[in-house]
# Entry
Amino acid sequence: MSATILSAILPFFGQVEAVAPIKEAPLPAGSKVSYSEAIRTREVTQSDFNSSTTRSHTTGNYSFQIELTGNFSDLSPTSELAITLGRFTYKGTLGDDPAYKTGRNSANLGLFVTSGSSVKTAAFTIQVKWNKDRVTIKTEGKVPDSESPIAYDVSSSDGKFSGRTQLSVRFGSVNTSTAFDFTGNYRRKEYARGDLSGSETNIEVKGKI
# Structure
């Protein structure tokens, strides 16, 4: 089965800016990308003689790692990191990590949201480490604190699917944008017990360059 995945650049909670369009360019030689996502949606409908009420809840997580080759010997707090992968988008600077200073070779970035209890939760985290000619960017996120980058738009009957979205990265000397292919598995179960009915949908996505 195939799934159509639309690539959209959407800001998160007004705290992350949309990434400006990046000129098409292939990944530098020796670069690698891997992606994994799993989300679950539960839907429950309670019915009586006069009405019915439906509740839906989606949870999950995603992670991806990007390894890029390039010249990373001249970075500073104003050096930008910009990533777009499906619906995931981030734009910031190394200086957004309060602990970063010129000469360090790592930074911890991401987005943290505050709940009603004033407790901060990591919607997603980004760990960046580099030497003079290679950078590794590790990203981990939670749904629904952060939106699903790829699996959100999968529509399939039970079984396997494949699709394509866009990956863009800008960091140091690297400015790249390329198609990103992925595969996945879609499973859906439905049930009915008395006045309750519902379904559970599980979607897993993986991709690699």
Observations:
- The CA atoms of residues 39 and 60 lie 4 Å apart.
